[in-house]
Amino acid sequence: MSNKYIGMDVHQASTVIVVLNEAGKTIMETILETKTGTLLDFIQGLRGRLQVTFEEGTYAAWLYDVLTPYVERVVVCDPRKNKLLPSGHKSDKVDARKLAEWLRQGQLVAVYHGNRTLRGLKELVRSYLCLVQDVTRVMNRLKALYRGRGISCGGRAVYRLRQRDSWLALLSEPGVQQRAALLVLQALRQTARQALLTESRKQAAFPILRQIPGLGPIRAGVVLALVQTPHRFRTKRQFWAYLGLAVVTSSSAEYRIVQGRVQKSGKPVSTRGLNPNYNRALKDVFKAAATGVSQREGPFKTLYARWLDRGLAPELARLSLARKLAALTLTLWKKGARYHPEQVTQQAA
To answer: What is the pTM of this model?
Structure first.
């Protein structure tokens, strides 16, 4: 049975599809409506071992779930990595053919799409994180409204519901008062928070993540929803890169020829900071966890103080704590083991 490589350039109204055979020859090109039934009819009309690829985007999760049962392999590829591959003319058909060709050559970098069992938790986490950002914006707007009218509103009293009427009474203009009354999202955030906690506690890995210092119930739920399985990462360094905690280095002219033999030049390796491509929500989780454990009594605070005594800058010491927490999380999650404080000194950061 022959292999067929299918590249899809997916848009709201239409999807351009190019099918290649094992030799890289185009055997079919078509444009279909972006609907479940239309796409499945096309896929089911093909014969052979089907491999499909399309770029990560708005429709990726839906299309991944639709096509997975009917093809041998689905690769949702990273569009940022595709920019590094050879390029030329651009059009929908050209893009679809390039995707199919890169799939045939094995050059695509896949974006992980987890199983459906955690899809609900992932959506709840996204909703909660969005609401946290929205609440912060609303709180800033509320204070700006009072400050714009010369009313001092330092602290958090202006946000408290039980004091809301007294604060609204300070606004003399009815329209402004009504605007301030509408700037409320805290109740909605609490509802989303409770739904997130309820769904998180149903997962078997939740108690394992909760025992790790610095990971409270919300942070554990976020890690569980966004990582989904620790077996995605073979080593802790791969996990660090996903979290944005991997150090990027640069070197050049590393070798020289001495008496006909290759030797290292001895030039120092330059550090270029942390990797720029990462999951921002997870990085925030482990950075906040590292800050928390550095201030609470325990082995992590002791380790943090030891690094400071050795002359390490506080921000670098917190980065090392975040990496150690991430490595510990990955190890315990994979093994399903319990946390013991002595593991802090055993696990390399």
So the answer is: 0.84
